[in-house]
Amino acid sequence: MPMTFASSPIVTAGLVVLFGVPIILFLWWAADEDSARRKLGWLSPYMLVIIPIYSALIAGVGWLFQDPHTLMLGGVVAAFTLKPVYDAWRRKRRG
Questions:
Q1: Cα separation, 39 vs 84, whole angstroms
Q2: 3-class state of residue 15 by DSSP
Q3: Which of these, 8, 9, 20, lies nearest to 58 by C-alpha position?
Q4: Over the stretch 64-75, which tens digit does the pLDDT of each residue have?
Q5: Quick check: pTM over 0.85?
């Protein structure tokens, strides 16, 4: 049986953390922005920028390893998290 990118339990756990952290942080921030800002401290102003970049890096890892699922998931998360970044940037420019 050939080895795949997620054949090992350690690699699988690493991928769960790699994908889970940005998704959970983004959902927390989207559900209760004030709580996330209080708990994350210095990191909260950068959350909207960090998550799309992090997801794009995940997509890059998928592209490097020729893993379409990693590429697709990272790209989709990056694309969907760019809308709040754009909205925040637009609000900042207006006022």
A1: 20
A2: helix
A3: 20
A4: 888 888 889 888
A5: no
